[in-house]
Amino acid sequence: MRWVCPVITALLGGLCLCTLVPIGVAAARTLDRPAVGIAASPDGHGYWEVASDGGIFGFGDASFLGSMGGKALDAPIVGIAASPDGHGYWEVASDGGIFSFGNAGFAGSMGSQHLNAPITGMAASPDGHGYWEVASDGGLFSFGNAGYVGSVPSLPPAGPSRIALYGDSLGMEAGPDFSYIARAAGASTLVRTYGGLAVCDWLPTMTDDATSWQPTAVVLEFSGDAFTPCMSGAAIGTEQYYQKYAADMQAAIDIFRPYGTKVFIAGVPYDESAGENQTVTDLDQMFASVAAANVGVTYVYAGQAVMADGAFTWDLPCLPSEPCTGPSGMNVIRAPDGVHFCPTGQTTIEGYLAVCNVYSSGAYRFAAAMLAPALGL
């Protein structure tokens, strides 16, 4: 701070009337928009102020490295975070959009994603390779190496368990038994499955369901289809394919995370074709890795329920809880195509379900394996 008296405007007893003004404050400037956040430089010898229009004001050793000031924004800026060495910073908008400057790397954002409440601030991880966004309802969104360890958002309403299933044709065949077993345990279900669809096909629906139904648990079952437009450019078995599935699975997890929903990723079984099994193995391993990287997410190797010692099989010994329809105490558990479950291969599509024309032990076993952890069994 310093004394300033550029112009003598009055004299009292020969003394100049002066004002005490702090050095380096934006208050002495005219702002187009109000300041909404501040971040300190690493050594504490400077700081940045950010305004709601994205304008940045640096003081001390906090250098100006660019800003969103004067640029079109979809939503106002609400916060700022500095990189660990002070050579960069991020601005965050209320819609979750992230703008990075200097050496502050972009690691993703909630921009263009559905939010139940506006973003109100952000913080960088210690090494600057990630950051968190926080919403006004306490919802937390993590990016890069910024791990998720919990939050205090609006939780699902109290009451019986509500379990949602999203998946492809295997989930579609298991859907009727999934709902039956859940109801018998006192839980309600929401089944969203259809043949040939991938995770990315269901993301918009998941967003709507998370808001309107707020499931207490979600099971994600996907065997690796890549036939729909959202999987364009990601041919089965390529690096892009696994990266796409991993990113979309993470996106699904992030949709339900603000609601405290438990997420279960189901591993799928081998097909009869040995040539396809390496893809299944790689996909299951990737799913397990995604689950391990997220607190509150569990990988469930449901596929083993319809295999024999980890290998493909056409039939298995009858379970005590099911009818025994095959010879010598065995039940046929796979369809004639060596992929699905209905023993005759004849199913009727009823909405999100594929109903087999005979008892399907494979569908029952797969449904029970997927559902058990979600029911706490």
Can you walk me through this structure?
With 377 residues, this protein is of the alpha+beta class. The protein folds into 2 domains: 26-144, Methylamine Dehydrogenase, Chain H (7 Propeller), CATH 2.130.10; 162-374, 3-Layer(aba) Sandwich (Rossmann fold), CATH 3.40.50. The protein is 21% helix and 27% strand. It has helices at 169-184, 199-212, 239-256, 274-292, 361-374; strands spanning 2-4, 11-12, 15-16, 19-21, 35-40, 46-51, 56-60, 77-82, 88-93, 98-102, 119-124, 130-135, 140-144, 162-167, 188-193, 217-221, 262-266, 297-300, 315-317, 330-332, 347-350, 353-356. The protein has a 5-stranded parallel β-sheet with strand order 15-14-16-17-18, sandwiched between helices. A hairpin with a 5-residue loop joins strand 8 and strand 9 (88-93). Helix 1 (169-184) packs across helix 5, helix 2 (199-212) packs parallel to helix 3 (239-256) and helix 3 (239-256) packs across helix 4 (274-292). It is elongated, with a radius of gyration of 28 Å. It starts with a strand and ends with a helix. The relative contact order is 0.09. The model is unreliable at 1-23 (pLDDT under 50).
The separation of the N and C termini measures: 67 Å
Number of strands: 22
CATH architecture grouping of the largest domain: 3-Layer(aba) Sandwich
Percent helix range? 10-25%
Average of pLDDT: 89
* Helix-strand topology string: EEEEEEEEEEEEEEHEHEHEHEEEEEH
